[in-house]
Amino acid sequence: MKYAAVNNFINGQFVKAQGSRTLDVISPIDGNHLSSVPMSTAMDLNKAVNAAKVAFPGWSRTPIKERVQVFFRYKYLLEKNLKELSELVQEENGKTYGEAVAEIEKSIELSEFATSLPQLVTGEVLEVSKGVECRTEHVPLGVVASIVPFNFPSMVPNWTIPNAIALGNCMIIKPSEKVPLSVGRLASLLKEAGLPDGVFNVVHGDVEIVEAICDHPGIEAVSFVGSTKVAKLVYQRSTHNFKRCLALGGAKNHLMVLPDAIPGMTAQNVAASMSGCAGQRCMAASAMVAVGKVDHIIEKICEEARKIVPGKNLGAVINQQSKDRIERFITEAEKDGAKILVDGRKTVVQGKEKGTYVGPTVIDFVKPTMSVATEEIFGPVISIMRTNTVDEALAIENANPYGNAASVFTQSGGAARYIIDNASAGMIGVNVGVPVPREPFSFGGWNESKFGVGDITGKSSIEFWTKLKKSTTKWNPEAGINWMS
Ligand code: NAD
Question: Does residue 319 fall inside a structural domain?
């Protein structure tokens, strides 16, 4: 084992979990045994909630301008340790080093946003009647939880950690059991940045701990990022227990390519979107709708896809199970009559034979009913469907139950606006393959890609991580009593 066994982080200390069950942490790059991760029990969660509860009064009463000083220092520590943090993300997740660096840079941007929260959470005050003032304040919720997926071991945790904590909450995070190492490093950096003990806690585990989080009476709010199947379970279970919940799910993002699209730029964007992070992004282009005569662009997409080399500029997928699943999708499409233009099946990287790689795959003449058109594949695969009109393309996009992102490639402002207005997705790109809104704009999809109100990042996250207190004050006895007194 390259690293020591992973521990929970409770009340500012790394502590052994009580549960005896563990899982191996394996690098998708080469099958190297990195560590082992404990499957904590409800007792471990209890300890973390108790520590967070004890820390909450002190932390929530610390003025926000003081609280965000921790995140100025945390941002600096992320910058200072960028190389080491990126290498760890690369090793446990399998993405390329450049993609891992981008993930840490995004984590830095997320901390930077949190430091601006004092400017954004000012309440309101108004004299609503003679001498009577109403005032609103954003008040932290208490102990909150964040449950995260494997595909961004640092960025997705940082979607929630800086904002929730800067806004005065204490947090329990449950990392993905597939990539548990990065969050441990984040915990050390938060401590080094001066975060008081108990404000941030890490409890490792799987289903048992997720269910315990949803059920725990000491936890006020649960944020979840992962597949739609689990997002629904977490949303139902935590709201059933009267908790606030925001659960982000899976995706099937459509790119609509119109005949007037700029061929080179479009092909580069499509290829980068479908293959970046080995297609394991909830914002990845997974389906493309070719509108009219765009064969010349499809040819260029294949040229671009062939430049993407597994083990070089394409990372590994998370594990063998995932590789097998992706390859099954491709084989099924082929059997159903689709044409495989670029085939990434049976990829082996020399010297990394135990790595789990799938090469870039372009599938043409896909029917909207095939599984490669309807399901989230989560691999470097693009399924191309053909239509004659923009409305037919939109009908395909709208029929999909997900709604994270959609993009259009065109030079026509009118066509682009029509697609922005009519696509059924929360985040839309125009000539942009991965339309992630950057701070201060918020991140969040629609339909089966998100359950709950508001978005997880940016200004919108303030509503999720705080509750509003409204006070009405009168200091002038001479004002007398009126209808609103
Ligand atoms: P996942 O749903 O399998 O796991 C997410 C978390 O839930 C993990 O911490 C895991 O331990 C836990 N979990 C897994 N199965 C569970 C169960 N049956 N009951 C309770 N908890 C369970 O997701 P993943 O495979 O880690 O991540 C990939 C998925 O996440 C994709 O669907 C991707 O689209 C989605 N994702 C969505 C967004 C978004 O913003 N919408 C962002 C990143 C990833």
Answer: yes
